[in-house]
Amino acid sequence: MTRLNACGMNDMSENIGFFFNPDSIAVIGASQAYGKLSNVLLRSLKKRFKGSIYPVNPKYNSINGLKCYTGVKAIEGGVDIAVLIVPSNAVIQALKDAADAGIKGAIVISAGFKETGKSGSLMEDEIKGIVNGHGIRVIGPNCMGIYDSFSGVDTFFIPEERLERPEKGGLSIVSQSGSFAVSIMDTLAMEGIGLARIVNYGNRVDVGESDLLEFLADDDNTKVVALYIEAVQDGKRFVDAAKRCSEKKPVIAIKVGRHEAGANAAKSHTGAIAGRYEIYRAAFKKAGIIEVSGYDELLDACKVFSMQRPANLSPVSSTGQALQDLSRDGKKVFILTDGGGVGVSLTDLCIEMGLDVIALPEDAKNNLSQKLPSFCSIANPIDLTGSVTDNDYKIALEEGLKYSDIAIVAALWGPPGLTDKLVYNIKEVSKRLNKPVIICSPGGRFTQEKKKLFEENGLPVFATPEDAVRAAGLLANKL
Amino acid sequence: MTRLNACGMNDMSENIGFFFNPDSIAVIGASQAYGKLSNVLLRSLKKRFKGSIYPVNPKYNSINGLKCYTGVKAIEGGVDIAVLIVPSNAVIQALKDAADAGIKGAIVISAGFKETGKSGSLMEDEIKGIVNGHGIRVIGPNCMGIYDSFSGVDTFFIPEERLERPEKGGLSIVSQSGSFAVSIMDTLAMEGIGLARIVNYGNRVDVGESDLLEFLADDDNTKVVALYIEAVQDGKRFVDAAKRCSEKKPVIAIKVGRHEAGANAAKSHTGAIAGRYEIYRAAFKKAGIIEVSGYDELLDACKVFSMQRPANLSPVSSTGQALQDLSRDGKKVFILTDGGGVGVSLTDLCIEMGLDVIALPEDAKNNLSQKLPSFCSIANPIDLTGSVTDNDYKIALEEGLKYSDIAIVAALWGPPGLTDKLVYNIKEVSKRLNKPVIICSPGGRFTQEKKKLFEENGLPVFATPEDAVRAAGLLANKL
Fold first, then answer.
1. Is the pLDDT of residue A119 over 80?
2. For A228, which residue in chain B has the nearest alpha carbon?
3. Which residue of A183, B297, B369, B429 lies most exposed, with the fewest beta carbons within 10 A?
4. Which residue of B has its CA nearest to A296?
5. What are B273-286's pLDDT values in tens digits?
6. Does any CB of chain B come closer than 8 Å to the CB of residue A399?
7. Who wins on pLDDT, B52 or B376?
8. Is residue B202 part of a domain?
9. Per the omega criterion (within 30 degrees of 0), is the bond before B436 cis?
């Protein structure tokens, strides 16, 4: 599909940064009614956003203690962006008014467009006309918009008791699906994984994945990018933008609507034509994108890239900076545990992932035999058994990491000799040797407590051997 | 490997039920020292087990308020089973004493046998000799033993703050690995999934997977069996036992040590020779075992079979009892959501799983168009959108389930119109139409609260589309 605005937009205004760092926001269609989405949105915004907020609705003089305006033109001093949360048939006029008032960008939350059929589609054409004619940029319609943990822009119109907002972090997410954006945001908050920016652009009359990738590539707050794609708009532009971004930071993507029935569901959802999956796979590869196939894989990838660096780093350079060496895959893995069975599982899975479960050299084994109790099984994996101490883990990890690119530590918390010191020991060795360590800790409430402690110390924890090995595969460039 | 006792044991004493329902237990090697494993074990047992407990240790007169005996022979009135938690070199004598005192079975917790090398292996031969000569049955050595939620037998020597004990339930687990047994038990407790019995038999000098399968096949408390296998001892006997069991209840298995390195790790772990994976796959198939490939898959299977019945049931019979029809696969699936994106993902995954995302008949669509708001997308999946109500879900589920064997309901809790009533509505329809429903609810803390409510009402909840579809695949006999 060719779209009128695909290139035009790009020439007209490359920078969409104002959506994320505005000085002022107008909320068009704000309501006084507590339960209404537009009131929820206003309250979220008021809680976080430090700039000026201008509710717009001719019905009210004030809402939630903020002065309410009859129209955008009445706002003194101008506005950077507008959020439109009005019935679909009022969107066109509101957008024209916003453009006339010199507003740079609009987030159109309102639904009832292309996803509902022909007449909605015609209204989208009108919106495109306004975008092209006036230079105003549009996110949406039929979207959740933006949550930005740094600037406090928050147009996700779900109250905090149903949707927690993640803390500041290095991960940014671009999602065509609103429900996906909401689910992952809420999960990240619970998991304690920080988020920089998340954008759901819904029906995408204007701003889409490529604009956002261009912005995020240069965004210093964003260290990792995750994409949820139903269909991209302009394949060539997407590959270029993603490539530029992936050269600077990891870009992870999931493609949904892989099959005809799924693609049809996507069409009735955001009006997107999902296209042939094989073409997407090739494009992702060309763009240096790490493709994941499921929600849990995406979550694992978000976590591991937020906390650890790739395993294929070359030794520290003369500038003191370790450099990622894309010709290497960093696949030498060392497995350490106090539970033999989990060690066996991890070994199986590492082999299936294409990781190299290295044999420890005789020197290393002799060294460890002298330092560790006799009942330990010294190989790879090393099984420290239920009689393990915090210090045994330290000794074994230090020796094993000398010969490997990455370690998976399956710390089961049953053994009475294990204390919080285990966490600090592992952190210390990982930092000192500058190699990534992944923790595998299946278990219940006690394990969950310790998981928190591990992750506060920058060590990502996975609850199953499968997740842990997948995370190792991601860091080793093997997925 | 032929083992001396493989058939002999079976002839000698088919029934090992006394391990799970003893009237009295002797704890040989019990200690007064609070931190010692044998003291932890005694305390766990005292907390749960309703029968008589006899600590045995010549050093003490009493331990934790229980009279302590100098030896098993000194215990008046006899003892059903003994738990041995003494140094490995004291095991042989203690076992002889137990056998001489007429004790029927011993759980040997002590490690330091075959897993440590030649001399340990010779000690195991001595244990086998005692088993064969005296008719005493042995679980272990190098094992966690048994946790039984019904009788209160609990030899898992990890205190409750590090290892929660699950509630009573219909799932029983047989695990060669102790760490696996501990991890899954703790996870099940946190997840609120009940457990009947779990056995870890470690080095397996005598009682192994086949004896346990024979016991569990006839055990009324056990509705589902899960196996964690490194290596089976006697292939033919295993297939026979598993087959008899799988004809009565679902039997799920995971095989680890699939590759050479993993198999080597298994050998140093429990001394087991893991054998060729292909042979296991064929044996599992022959035995009617549902094979899963990972820890999370196994957890999903335990949950879904604990809460729902297979989807390939024939219509209710004349006796009022629905019968599982093994010639059918029950693969017609209906997907219902309030989040379009999750619906798209579920559709993709169902197709990849070989499930049939049926087209709704025109009649059904017309019916739904009249009853549901116009903004809903009526197909399969149905997207009820963020404006959904509890009642919309009820209407759509009822119509969709008429034409399908199973429903996946992706309930995202963002929409303000959803309340706890949603849970009761879904339960009511599922019960009335007697068809299984699986819930997919990704999200954070609010979602977790509602997950609890769903599961208290017998509806299994999965956090990702992948897990939900896998669960549907299990019920539909498609995995």
1. yes
2. B341
3. B369
4. B464
5. 556 888 999 999 99
6. no
7. B52
8. yes
9. no
Distance from the A296 Cα atom to the nearest Cα atom in chain B, whole angstroms: 6
Question: Within this chain, do residues A278 and A396 fall inside the same structural domain, yes or no?
Answer: no
Domain range for residue A409? 332-475
Cβ contact, residue pair B265, A340, below 8 Å: yes
Q: Are residues B102 and B43 part of one domain?
A: yes
96-125 of B, contacting A, C-beta below 8 A: 111-112, 115-116
Q: Are residues B273 and B418 in the same domain?
A: no
Nearest CA in chain A to B267: A344
Residue A313: per-residue pLDDT:
58
Nearest CB to B295: which of A186, A379, A465? A465
Percent of chain B with pLDDT over 70: 90
Alpha carbon of B401: minimum distance to chain A alpha carbons (Å): 19
> Within this chain, do residues A263 and A383 fall inside the same structural domain, yes or no?
no
Residues B351 and B291 in one domain: no
Report which of A417, A402, A409 is spatially closest to residue A454, judged by C-alpha positions: A409
Residue A12's pLDDT is 38
- Verify that B178 and B226 share a domain, yes or no: yes
Count how many domains chain B has: 2
Query: Is A258 part of the contact surface with chain B (CB cutoff 8 Å)?
Result: yes
Q: Residues of A with CB below 8 A from B268's CB?
A: 340, 377, 379, 383
Q: How far apart are CA A434 and CA A410, in angstroms?
A: 19
Tokens of B83: 């738990």
3-class DSSP state of A108 = strand
> What is the pLDDT averaged over residues B330-334?
93
What's the mean pLDDT in A19-41?
A: 95
User: Are A397 and A299 found together in one domain?
Assistant: no
A76: which DSSP letter?
A: T
| pLDDT cut 70: percent of chain A above it | 90
Which of B31, B174, B344 should we substitute to test contact with A (largest number of A Cβ atoms within 10 Å)?
Answer: B344
- Is residue A318 one of the residues assigned to a domain? no
Kindly give, in sequence order, each residue whose CB lies less than 8 Å from that of residue A13, ignoring residues fewer than 6 positions away. Answer: A135, A137
Question: DSSP string covering A186-222, please?
Answer: HHHHHHT--EEEEEE-TT-SS--HHHHHHHHHT-TT-
Confidence of residue A14 (pLDDT cuts 50, 70, 90): low
CA angle centred on A269, ends A228 and A206, rounded to 5°: 65
Rounded to two decimals, the ipTM of the complex is 0.84
Looking at residue B226, its amino acid is A
Stretch 298-337 of chain B: residues touching chain A, C-beta under 8 Å: 299, 337
Cβ under 8 Å to B: A residues 159-218: 159, 161-164, 175-180, 182-184, 186-187, 189-190
Name beta bridge partners: A407.
A334, A437
Q: Does some domain include residue B327?
A: no
Tell me whether residues B112 and A180 touch, CB distance under 8 A: no
CB-CB under 8 Å, A183 with B339? yes
For the cut 80, the answer to whether the pLDDT of residue A297 exceeds it is yes
Tell me if B310 is assigned to some domain: no
Q: Tell which residue, A460, A457, A453, A455, has the closest CA to residue A474.
A: A460
Between CA A471 and CA A308 the distance in angstroms is 10
Domain check: are B346 and B250 in the same one? no
Q: Could you say which of A265, A375, A381 has the minimum Cβ distance to residue B112?
A: A375
Q: CB under 8 Å to B81, separation ≥6 — which residues?
A: B18, B19, B22, B24, B25, B26, B103, B104, B105, B106, B107
Q: Tell me if B265 and A448 make a contact (CB, 8 A cut-off).
A: no
Record: contact B379-A447, CB cut-off 8 A: no
The answer to whether A381 and A368 have CB atoms below 8 angstroms apart is no
What is the domain-level CATH number for residue B211?
Answer: 3.40.50.261
